[in-house]
Amino acid sequence: MTLPHPSQVIEQQWFARPAPEVAPDLIGCVLVRQLPNGERLRGIIVETEAYGPDDPACHAYRKRTPRNAVMFGVAGYSYVYLIYGMYHCFNVVTDQDGVASAVLIRALALQDIGSESAALSPKAQARLAAGPGKLCRCLEIDRSLSQVPLMHGQPLWFEHPVREADAEISSLELVQTTRIGLTQGVEIPWRWYLKGSAAVSKL
DNA sequence: AGTGGGATCTGT
DNA sequence: CAGATCCCACTA
Fold first, then answer.
1. Strand C nucleotides with an atom less than 7 Å from a protein beta carbon
2. Does the global pTM surpass 0.85?
3. Among chain A residues 70 through 89, which have CB within 7 angstroms of nucleic chain B?
């Protein structure tokens, strides 16, 4: 069992910057999910989107509500919401306390996969967390995991990239473009992904 | 109290 | 490209 080296875990303070700075920095980092049954799932982040204040696509654009309240709080907490009645989306709260912003984690290249999915073909495994809804299904994330601190010992946390494991990923080009699935704020180029990764949503 | 739309995904 | 499916924010 590999316990994370303390310096490897990303602290909540790291997220206390504007979302459009955090989102590209998260590409190549690792998301870790500690399941209730003891299994630990890990994946390299290959696609993110930023949402911020003065951003019409942001859930917190209009005002603070019970649903979006956590986005107004301090950085390094989870924001999980239900979309289209059937999927969940997982975000990290960013920026200073009082600034409503977050980064949506859209896709992972899975490293440690759950035992249930181990029998799937490599191709199918690569698509397991390709898209925010599938990612949450794969990592068993729902709204009960909203507003929890993203730190070691919790159900979810982030780690900095490890050099060896990262060799293949780090050769890929980081692309910045517009966000997906929106009706407002369509022109804001706050989506980042690794070009050529099989796990990026909507090729 | 009623309603309409949504940061998605799958199959036709 | 339609359908599944349900919470929540907004209107009255």
1. 4-10
2. yes
3. 71, 79, 82-87, 89
Task: Identify the three-state secondary structure at position A44.
Answer: strand
Per-residue pLDDT at A195: 96
Which DSSP helix (H) or strand (E) runs through A123?
Answer: helix A122-126
Residues, chain A: 203
A108 touches strand B (CB under 7 A): no
What's the topology of domain A6-195? 3-methyladenine DNA Glycosylase; Chain A (3.10.300)
What residues does each domain of chain A span?
A: 6-195
In whole angstroms, what is the distance from residue A9 CA to residue A71 CA? 22
Report the candidate in A104, A95, A100, A96 with the shortest Cα–Cα distance to residue A70: A100
Confidence band of A94 (pLDDT split at 50, 70, 90): very high
What's the rounded mean pLDDT across residues A39-50? 97
* Per-residue pLDDT tens digits for A125-171: 999 999 999 999 999 999 999 999 999 999 999 999 986 666 778 78
